[in-house]
Amino acid sequence: MAFFAIVFALVFGWFGRKRLQALSMAMSALILFVTLYTSTGTVMLQVLENHTPRAAMPSAGPGCIIVLGGSFEAEVIASRGGLEMNQAGDRFVETLRLAQSYPDARILVSGGDGSFSGRYAGDAAVATEFFESFGIPAGRLVQETRSRTTFENVENTKSLLGENGLDNCLLVTSAFHMPRAIGLFGKAGLNVLPWPTDYRTSGAAGLALDFTQPSANAQLTTTAMREWVGLLAYYLAGRTPALLPR
Q: How would DSSP label each residue in 43-69?
């Protein structure tokens, strides 16, 4: 947004609109200041993370564990090997912990290659090696390898749940991503138990100046804005029943 404000300022300056140019420059500076030197992004992300608490664990344990992809660095893995995770790696770490605690639960991994080239293995494909390296046999896994978006995660997962007779499922994804995911599953008629992980805020942050970590503030703001835009887009498209589904 700051970039576009600067572009508008240059355009206004070219046409001699000095007041509009000054306003655009001030807007750009304000956006940069709020993004880098305040906790606004943290609070925006925190609202999403606090929205959907973990469900009560079924007394007999879950019948399955659905984990949404987006945790593995596919391009890095393709060139360097190994199992490289990004910031959302907690999704698979928590799924591994659950899988070890509830050995009868199946694991449905939903996530294809999200790159533009389509040349890399998606999370569902990489997941076999990940889980097997920790003693979880491949026979427990159900792989959904085609989805590239959260909407496709749900659409493609729905048929696999029916084909494999899976129910009483936990849904594991990042806490900030859970409202959109749970809204899509509900809209599709799938009753899943939210199990958020990958928390990135303390849950108790307030609006304040913060000059200590501008790069982290910018990253949190970017993540929050992307998720809020996704929520709005899915709601306006009729894919979720509310802006913040429960």
A: HHHHHHHHHSPPPPPPTT--SEEEEE-
Q: What are the residues whose beta carbons fall under 8 Å from the beta carbon of 4, sequence distance 6 or more?
A: none
Q: What is the pLDDT of residues 176-214, one digit of tens each?
A: 999 999 999 999 999 999 999 999 999 999 999 999 999
- Give the tokens for residue 175: 């806490």
Tokens read off for 2: 């700051």
pLDDT band, very low/low/confident/very high, at 100 (cuts 50, 70, 90): very high
Count Cβ atoms below 10 Å from residue 236 Cβ, excluding itself: 10
Please give the domain boundaries of the chain with CATH numbers for all domains.
2-49+212-236 (no CATH), 52-197 (3.40.50.620)
Share above pLDDT 70 across residues of the chain, in percent, rounded to a whole number: 93
* Amino acid identity, position 48: L
User: What residue has token string 């009560």?
Assistant: 56
CB count in 10 Å sphere of residue 209: 9
Spatial contact of 49 and 176, defined as CB atoms under 8 Å apart: yes
What residue has token string 């849950």?
203
- Percentages helix, strand, coil for the chain (3-state, rounded to 5) are 55, 10, 35
- Return phi, psi of residue 134, to 5°: -110, 20
| Residue that the structure tokens 């499922």 belong to | 169
The whole-chain average pLDDT of the chain stands at 91
Spatial separation of the C-alpha atoms in residues 130 and 62, rounded to whole Å: 21
Q: Can you give the pTM of this predicted structure?
A: 0.89
- DSSP labels for 72-132? B-HHHHHHH-S--B-GGGHHHHHHHHHHHH-TT-EEEEE----SSS--S--HHHHHHHHHH
Task: Give pLDDT tens digits for 18-56.
Answer: 787 788 788 888 888 999 999 999 999 999 999 999 999
